[in-house]
Every structure is written in structure tokens, then in C-alpha cells.
Amino acid sequence: MPLSLSTITNPIQRRDNQYLKILIQAQQSRERAIHLLPHLIIWNLHPSKETQALTDAIFGLHESPGFLRSLFVLLRYYRRAFVKVAQPVNLQQFIKDNEEQGIAQQAHKLRSLLEQKLSSEIYDVTGPRIRPHADFKQAILTDRKISEIITSECGQDDNAVEAMTKKAHDILDEIAAEPKIQWPLTANWILNLFWRSQ
């Protein structure tokens, strides 16, 4: 679920909360709680890069690969791959905790929660890294106070909520700092070569 990326080899992927909206609507129509179990397969123990390269646009990210990268990773790392399972999400309780919000906002917040859980599982394995720029923006957009302001401005109009959320996202793109760690990673690689040669 996290880190969805459209690629040349997998162009149909897109960031869409439609399935989460359907799940929320299904939960609202039944008494028994639906539990979501976030899980993922980890192939590589190294932390992922902060910025996307051209190969990522063509073949997909390591966490969300396109077809060709999936095939390559499967053949190369299949013996070292393992599954990480995050804490389940009680959808019924989640809806109760966010009942003042519309379905569009609930789906957006649910997606963020699931992505956060999966990201935590990845970080537990690959180690800490500078918080991704996208996660920083996501944390702001899903903040309770920000959600309350958007709700007060748009009411229960889902289209207006999505439009204002997109506008806030664009504003954050302009003002939020995006940390770069490529230089430290390059320096680390050079130093490792130096120490190995001693």
C-alpha cells in the first residue's frame, strides 16, 4: 500500500482511496468489526533512498516495484525475503474515533495510518533514516486541527474536502524543506572503500 508509484512497466498504479472508501462503507453497514492487517514482504535490508532516480520511474521503487523490478528482486533476493506484519486496525473503532469526518477524510486518514504502520515495520528492519518529505506533508495534512479546519470550511462535501486537501498539499510542496542525504551516503561509500583497502 505505501509508496505507490506509476511506472512505465506498471502504469496503472495510482494513489486512490476508493477501496478504502468501500471498506468504510461496508463497515458502516454491519455490526461485526472489520480488522485490517497491514503486512509487506521485505527484500532488502538496506534503507531506501530519499529521492527517486530515473530507474525508479521506469521500474518502480524497491518497496513498490513494477513488473520487471519485481521479477529481478524475486530472482535475486528470494532466499532472504521475509514477511513483516504490523498491528491490526479495528476499522469499526477507527470510524468511531473519526465519526465527525466525511468518508473521503476517513479514507485519507486510514490510508495514512496504514502507511505509517508499514513504514514503521520497514524502519525496524532497515534502520532509521531522515523522515521522508512525503511523510512530513502527510503528517501535517492528517493532523486533527488541520482536519477540523478543512471540515469547518467544506462541511460534508467530499469533493470540496479533496480539493482543499490537494491545495494544502501543493502549498506544502512550496514551503516544506526536503532533506537530502545523498552526500552522506556517498561519503560513507567512499570511506568504506578506504577502510577496506587498509
How would you portray this structure in words?
This protein has 198 residues and is mostly helical. It has one domain. Helices cover 57% and strands 6% of the residues. It is built from nine helices and four strands; from the N terminus they run H-E-E-H-H-E-E-H-H-H-H-H-H. It has helices spanning 18-28, 54-59, 67-77, 91-97, 103-126, 133-141, 144-154, 158-175, 182-197; strands at 35-36, 39-42, 82-85, 89-90. The strands form two sheets. Strands 1-4 form a two-stranded antiparallel ribbon. Strands 2-3 form a two-stranded antiparallel ribbon. Helix 7 crosses helix 8 (158-175). The radius of gyration is 19 Å and the shape is globular. The termini are far apart. The model is unreliable at 1-13 (pLDDT under 50).
List the SSEs and their pairings.
Elements: H1 18-28, E1 35-36, E2 39-42, H2 54-59, H3 67-77, E3 82-85, E4 89-90, H4 91-97, H5 103-126, H6 133-141, H7 144-154, H8 158-175, H9 182-197
Antiparallel strand pairs: 1-4, 2-3
Q: Numbering strands along the chain, what is their spatial order in the largest sheet?
A: 1-4
Q: Tell me the major beta sheet.
A: 2 strands, antiparallel
Number of helices: 9
Measured as a percent range, the helix fraction is 55-70%
- Mean pLDDT, as a whole number? 78
The dominant shape is: globular
Question: H/E order of the elements?
Answer: HEEHHEEHHHHHH
State Rg.
Answer: 19 Å
Q: What count of domains describes the coordinates?
A: 1
| Termini separation | 44 Å
**Count of DSSP strands:** 4
Q: What percent of residues are in strands?
A: 5-15%
Low-pLDDT residue spans = 1-13
Class inferred from helices and paired strands: mainly alpha
